[in-house]
Amino acid sequence: MSFLNTKENYIKTKLEEMGLKSEKVSIVPSSKPEFGEFQYNGIMALAKDSKKNPRELAEELIEKLKDDKDFENLSVAGPGFINITFSKQSLMNLGNGLLQTKEYIEKLPKKKVIIDYGGPNVAKVLHVGHLRSANIGEALKRLAKKLGYEVISDIHLGDYGLQMGMIMLEIETRYPTLSCFQENFNEEEVKDLPITNEDLIDLYPIASQKAKENESIMERARNITYLLQQNDPRYKALWNTILKISLKDMKDLYQKLNVEFDLWKGESDAEKVIPEMIEYLEQKNVIKESEGARVIEVEENTDKLPVPPLLLIKSNKTVSYETTDLATLWEREKEYHPDEVWYVVDKRQELHFTQVFRASKKTEIIKENTTLEFIGFGTMNSSDGRPFKTRAGGVMSLRNLMDIVKTETEKNMIPSITGKEREELAEVIAVGTLKFADLLSHRATDYIFDPEKFSDANGKTGPFIMYSTIRMRSLLQKAKELNIEEIEFKTLKGTSDKKVLLQILNLQKTLENALEEKSLHEITNYLYNLNNTYNNFYSENRILTAENEDLKKSWIALTKIVYEINTQLLNILAIELPTRM
Ligand code: ARG
Q: What pLDDT is stored for residue 123 in this prediction?
């Protein structure tokens, strides 16, 4: 159990001895240094409930806590706050425990979670929204695993909607002689098309523009979508090839971002189960006819804004984005029986998920006690506050974005790194820079793309953390070369070195809060505070040349712990540490 947790439980038992029941005792960092290191602020509420004087209760509790020598100082402040200062020894014991067990992070009760993130669209460019989904989703997955959950990640490709009909129509127009459009259809030939991923990406905006401007083209695109959804062999063959071309490129990009999926399923995988799901829904008698379409009503009395019915089958007989999501839930429930399903998607899609979640509960496709969570994120904007676009006003591709950050990164790298190494390291640093910046604010807030700020090695940035971690690593390396063995805490100055240990007390809660809030800003900010505190300590002291051997060993031990935490947290954020920078 984490140090703070143990102390919280201790306070709880002492309160019980005093006849006071507290659901949750929290020891929190002090808001101001003059209030001690930590505080317990629960007394006022307990006093109110039991109609007692809060300051007297606080004094009484302090008397009882004095037996525990880990508390160096306890005092009452204001109406009944308890200020807490921990003893140096208690923190050194904690540090030595960590060095021995290497258990920095405690597990929570197990849960089975499916996490749906990434969500790129086949044959369309990956843009910053997809970056955010991949980045936040990957980190949440790793965090949940670290905290003991069983997690299944699914990319949920957008591979089944109207965009596929549009693209296939455009291909048909451009390459009418391909055998899939001819009498002599030959599946083998369609496996090997003269089309690259770049072609596909260029093609989509043109195809979509044409369809929007011309109703008969739109109608044909819809029809092709319908044929695809009916498993027409020609379009299915073409679709398979497009998928293959597109996936190769996507895999490459996700690898660069350190993003890994357990399942590479897509909207199209829902297809297999749609008929059985519809049959089930028919039996349940929940489908309504509406203007030629078939829908499920999901409105609730308490709605402040209208929630339109879920469109199950459109009047043109194709299925919608809602249907594939509902059917995917059907399949997920049957195959995995998850306790929770999380969706990391642009917050502008919230209504869609409200419809899907309600429909799935109402129809009992998903059990009442299964948690479905929409984890919406904000947009990355340019300095004018609008979503970040290319100069021409188009969507900014992820590759483009990475290149901009990479150019900025290279400006800050030391000149002695050259050639191929420089190129490779710049890539690693740029990805980490972008990721850290993307995780710095609460996920739901919009933020501004500012590569210069993101790269500032003195700011709240990825490079700041990377640089500080690399410096710790080289210090530990030097200590090893100097044969400084058996590092452990023996003594501390009790100044800036103690402050670093106090930061470590917050680790477990930080991770739990991040998981609770489903936002990584808790972790990026913690990393910043921890490293800032460590760097203050580092600049105040000469660690490797300290006169006092015990102090030297303790400081190296301290460095080792912070280094270890940095590594583990960067790993949760899926940020790779460069060898140098
Ligand atoms: N492909 C979608 C998009 O680009 C995101 C998919 C989100 N996940 C889901 N299950 N609908 O907007």
A: 87
Residue nearest to atom 6 of ligand 1 (CA): 119
Q: What stretch of H or E contains 464?
A: helix 462-481
Task: Kindly give, in sequence order, each residue whose CB lies less than 8 Å from that of residue 215, ignoring residues fewer than 6 positions away.
Answer: none
Q: Compute, in angstroms, the gap from residue 191 CA to the centroid of ligand 1.
A: 27
- For the record, the structure tokens of 554 come out as 């303790």
- Residue written as token pair 């953390």: 465
pTM flag (> 0.90): yes
Nearest by Cα to 85 from 26, 10, 35, 41: 35
Q: How far is the CA of 345 from the centre of ligand 1 (A)?
A: 7
Tell me what the mean pLDDT of segment 549-559 comes to: 96
Structural tokens at position 351: 């209504």
DSSP 576: P
If you take atom 8 of ligand 1, which residue's CA is the nearest one? 119
pLDDT of 457 strictly over 90 = yes
Q: Tell me, in angstroms, the distance from the centre of ligand 1 to residue 200's CA.
A: 19
DSSP 8-state secondary structure symbol assigned to residue 119: -
Cβ neighbours of residue 240 under 8 Å, at least 6 residues apart? 190, 191
Does the pLDDT at position 34 exceed 90? no
Place of tokens 């140090």: 3
Residues with CB under 6 A from ligand 1: 116, 119, 121, 156, 158, 325, 343, 345
pLDDT of residue 396: 85
> Which ligand 1 atom sits closest to the C-alpha of 157?
1
Q: How many residues does the chain have?
A: 581
